[in-house]
Amino acid sequence: MPAPVLMLALLAADPVPELDFRSPDGTVLIAADQIVSYDWAMHTLTLKPGTREAVRAAVFRTGGDHTFVATVGGKEAYRGTWKSVVESASSSTAVIVLDNQRLHPKLPAEQIRIDLGYPARNFFKGDDPRGHPAVKGAVKAKPPGITVATNAGNRELTGKDAEAYRVTAAWLEERMKEAEAVKPGTTYAELTKAFKTDGGISKPAVHRFVSVLCPYLKIDVEFEGDAKHPLAKDARVKAVSKPYFEREFGD
């Protein structure tokens, strides 16, 4: 399926229920798109930069209820408790210690773990809720995130953004290969399997071609001899430019 069609399908498809973490009143504290990855074996979540600290500040800004609600598609899966390493009160639920890095310096700054009981597992009571089928389904359905380097630092892509990035990059790679296959000696007939003549004004000796499948991808081609329009099928390429992007011209 061509990338533009697949991207539209991704956008139009019914959204897959996603995991997020909320307060009991429904306020979203960790949104689905802030979860970069979920290590199911360790129940360790990697979050987008700044998310953990923002949640810690929001949760412990005031006293009161520190309950979190793990929800999938807006529906409650299970409840647990936000904790801090400075707290002395025990908990018998699933817990997320938001400043675990203070005790475990090697734990990356944007990771949190869902543990059982606090301050140790022997304080936990009941069945382990972390394997809830809806949560497991959401974690497995979520495409792995992608880290994209920018001049301002890394940017994390998740969910549909990550999937669209993969699809688009792979599709454009195929179009680039088609452009790079045009070399001196390529015939006009071979060239026009993947490219067509662009509209607008061209230089007399240079012919501008646009990708059939990507109307923004172009190459400038010079043919051997006194090549004029219309070009013969056996006309051969003398020189070709690097691929470049530009909007397609009308006639």
Give the tags.
251 residues, alpha+beta, 2 domains, five-stranded antiparallel beta sheet, rod-shaped
Topology readout:
Blueprint lengths: L2 H10 L6 E4 L5 E3 L4 E5 L4 E4 L3 H9 L7 E6 L2 E9 L7 E7 L13 E8 L14 H9 L4 E5 L2 E5 L1 H22 L7 H4 L3 E3 L9 E5 L5 E7 L13 E4 L3 E2 L6
Parallel strand pairs: 6-7
Antiparallel strand pairs: 1-2, 1-5, 3-4, 4-8, 5-6, 7-8, 9-10, 11-12, 12-13, 13-14, 13-15
In brief, what are we looking at here?
The protein is built from five helices and 15 strands. With 251 residues, the protein is an alpha+beta fold.
Structural notes for this entry:
The chain is α+β, with helices and mostly antiparallel strands and 251 residues long. The chain folds into 2 domains: 17-141, no CATH class; 182-245, no CATH class. 22% of the residues lie in helices and 31% in strands. It has an 8-stranded mixed sheet. Strands 11, 12, 13, 14 and 15 form a 5-stranded antiparallel sheet that branches.
Strand line-up in the sheet with most strands:
2-1-5-6-7-8-4-3
Overall pLDDT score: 88
**Count of individual beta strands:** 15
| Helix fraction by DSSP (H/I, runs of at least 4) | 10-25%
Secondary-structure-derived class: alpha+beta
Overall spatial form: rod-shaped
Q: What are the low-pLDDT stretches, counting only 5+ consecutive residues below 50?
A: none
Rounded Rg: 27 Å
